[in-house]
Design goal:
Distance between the termini: 27 Å
Number of domains: 3
Helix content: 40-55%
CATH topology of the largest domain: Glucose Oxidase, domain 1
Number of strands: 10
Shape: globular
Largest sheet: 8 strands, mixed
Strand order of the largest sheet: 3-10-9-5-6-7-8-4
CATH architecture of the largest domain: 3-Layer(bba) Sandwich
Length: about 270
């Protein structure tokens, strides 16, 4: 991220924040001038709640993640000791164990007892995990078209089986319309492939992905809604976002020219990769 900003690849984050703050204040003042009476009172209360509480959700997720690096180092050290005891083949195989298995193995190590060999269980779990990753979960459980009498079709993405053409439907969570090449990323190991101005396409984004939003012209994900990480950060950066497509990560290829319409919740594939 330092290299991006120092190299002039992206605009100043301070200028972007000022521009977004100005648009927010303009929109707020416009509503205050239009509304009267009870509607004005209700708007004042709701907009105050929204501006105060929305950042707390993102702060909470970021704070939760602060402990992950330390936990990962601790678990890898435990995995190294499991390897020495013959329980697993690689230190990072510990992440494929169930909590009870790891606790029992650790207790055996503490007591100087032999540790059960757990290595043979891991290949099957990896196979199941890879198979499950290819599945697309339903948009709602239990499946329904109405809730409290409200029709939900317009609020939810289309079923994965319906996403057969060049137009992919999702949930528009940050307004705007952009046409640019796609960049499909599967994890942090792909971050260096992202180029300024490309559309970030991923299964899901987390706080670790935030630096990429400064480079992205738009964001498209398989999973998410208006309060998801990708939506909140896209609105902060003022770029279009379509989330909850279910299939974009598989249907779109890096290099394809696509149009992202964050207002209508649509992604159109314009050309082949």
């Amino acid at each position: 991220m330092y290299k991006m900003f120092l190299g002039g690849q992206v605009g100043s984050p301070y200028a972007r924040q000022r521009a977004i703050a100005e648009r927010r204040e303009q929109a707020t003042q416009a509503m205050l001038q239009r509304l009267k009476g009870l509607r004005l009172k209700l708007f004042r209360k709701l907009v105050t709640w929204a501006q105060k509480c929305a950042p707390l959700r993102e702060d909470g997720i970021a704070d939760l993640g602060l402990g992950y690096p330390l936990l990962r180092r601790m678990l890898l050290e435990l995995g190294r000791r499991f390897v020495q005891a013959g329980a697993i083949e690689r230190a990072d195989d510990i992440f494929w164990l169930f909590q009870a298995e790891a606790e029992q193995a650790a207790a055996a190590l503490d007591q100087g007892q032999p540790v059960e060999c757990l290595a043979e269980r891991i290949p099957q779990r990896k196979t199941v995990w890879r198979a499950e990753k290819r599945l697309t979960p339903p948009t709602m459980l239990p499946p329904r078209t109405r809730w409290l009498g409200i029709r939900l079709e317009g609020m939810l993405p289309a079923h994965a089986g319906d996403q057969a053409g060049d137009t992919i439907k999702g949930t528009g969570t940050s307004p705007g319309r952009v046409t640019a090449p796609a960049r499909v990323l599967h994890g942090s190991e792909d971050f260096d492939q992202m180029k300024p101005g490309e559309v970030l396409v991923a299964a899901i984004t987390t706080p670790a992905w935030t630096p990429l939003f400064a480079m992205a012209s738009a964001v498209v994900t398989d999973v998410g809604g208006p309060l998801s990480h990708g939506s909140i950060v896209a609105r902060e950066y003022g770029i279009p976002a379509v989330l909850g497509t279910g299939v974009a990560n598989r249907r779109i290829q890096s290099g394809q020219l696509i149009t992202v319409d964050g207002g209508r919740g649509l992604v159109e594939i314009l050309e082949t990769a």
